Amino acid sequence: MQKNVPRLFILTLLGLLAFAPVAARADALRVCEDPNYLPFSNRAGQGFENEIAAFIARTLGARLTYTWETERGPGGFEQFVHDTLDSKRCDVLVDVPYASENVMTTRPYYISSYVFVYEKSKHYDITSMDSPELQRLRIGFESDTPAENGLKIRALILHAVPFDASDEPGGSPAEMLDAIQSGRIGVGVTWEPAVGSFLQQRPQLAVVPVPNSRSQGSPEQYSFPMAMGVRLKDTVTRDRLNSVIAAHAVELTRILARDGVKLYKPGDVATR
Predict the structure, then answer these.
(1) Which of 40, 148, 197, 209 is the most exposed place for a label (fewest CB within 10 A)?
(2) CATH number at residue 159
(3) For residues 153 and 110, is the Cβ–Cβ distance under 8 A?
(4) What is d(CA 35, CA 45) in angstroms, rounded to the nearest whole number?
(5) Per the omega criterion (within 30 degrees of 0), is the bond before 266 cis?
(6) Of 245, 197, 210, the residue nearest 60 (C-alpha)
(7) Bridge partners of residue 136, in order along the sequence
(8) pLDDT digits (tens), the chain, 272 positions
């Protein structure tokens, strides 16, 4: 004889099933990423930010999901944060400056620097923004960065060439390296993680970190600690990420190094 199922049991079961999708979503690491911006990220998972995200998800036992949105449309990075993280379409930014104001950041997990890049065969004596050699060279720089400000302070901007890979969809940071090798510019000043993976295939290029400077008035910073970002006040996600960063610094460093991201200690790029 079929047993009668109590009505209360049915209602309880339906209630549990209704909450099941929420539990599943809590087990996901929802990452905000650009779908076509190597060497940082792409849909194929080939960027170093993709690799970091995959490692974090595995370590947490979470399912990795992406919200794809370009960082290079109108409004730039701030609009990207608004349309993704702040809109709660995703929860984590893998790679942001530690001092970011519009997100809550984890502890830093690496420090890198802006660098000078030029042909080794030229034997330039370039060690800082104040190197006399820069007065006679055509200089490439990424717009709206500390490098642009440093060039303006010294009037070097008058013989410099802007590159806008961070603003133009489809643009690549490798364009500056191409310009160096073609002779269009003599030296480039750029964020090392943006070109590190490309430099692995260009051993003929020299790479020198740009030291922080106080020689022209206000302090200039060219090295930055990098962290992960979450929504403001989302301490739960931040703390979960911090636990992974604290316990797996060696593994995270290994991923970055494999992808050509050169790491610096504060003393390596000391103020000059």
Answers:
(1) 148
(2) 3.40.190.10
(3) no
(4) 9
(5) no
(6) 245
(7) none
(8) 333 434 333 333 334 334 333 333 458 999 999 999 999 999 999 999 999 999 999 999 999 999 999 988 788 889 999 999 999 999 999 999 998 999 999 999 999 999 999 999 999 999 999 999 999 999 999 999 999 999 999 999 999 999 988 777 778 999 999 999 999 999 999 999 999 999 999 999 999 999 997 665 678 999 999 999 999 999 999 999 999 999 999 999 999 999 999 999 765 555 44
Q: Both 99 and 172 in a single domain? A: no
In degrees, rounded to 5, the angle at the alpha carbon of residue 114 between the alpha carbons of residues 210 and 166 is 150
Q: In which domain, by residue range, is 249 found?
A: 27-110+224-265
Number of C-beta neighbours around residue 17 at 10 A: 9
Tokens of 161: 């060439």
Q: Indicate if 117 and 170 belong to the same structural domain.
A: yes
Strand, helix or coil for residue 64? strand
Residues 123 and 63 in one domain: no
Do residue 183 and residue 60 come from a single domain? Answer: no
Number of domains observed in the structure of the chain: 2
Rounded distance between C-alpha atoms, residue 189 and residue 75, angstroms? 24
Whether 8 is in a domain gets the answer no
The set of residues, in sequence order, having a beta carbon less than 8 Å from that of 18 and lying 6+ positions away, is none
